[in-house]
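<instruction>
Derive structure tokens from the sequence
<data>
Labelled lines for chain and fold:
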Amino acid sequence: MNAEALYDMLKKVQEPKGYFFNQDRERVFDLLEALLANKERYGTMVCPCRLAAGDREADRDIICPCVYREPDVAEFGSCYCNLYVSEAWNTGEIPHEYVPERRPPEKMGF
């Protein structure tokens, strides 16, 4: 699968749920390419904005869409990576604030 096919597939599934791709297409396609690279590397599309352990169970919370996406988009209008955003975020109705990391430090391997 290439990034264009992944984009089309995810768009059809996620938009009805209220999750839109960031209107910055270059950023979106960079992230989609990174997701595909992580799938090849780790066997799952783990978040490219976070450090993966390479273990499916340990990385379960950061398999895209990660478990943090819903609260991030609800609170900030964007997920941590800015891949998935709300419609209001894309149209500029809400500010583009920094989305803090919600993943607990113990899951990050520190």
About this structure: Residues 58 and 107 are 7 Å apart (CA to CA). The chain is about 40% helix and 5% strand.
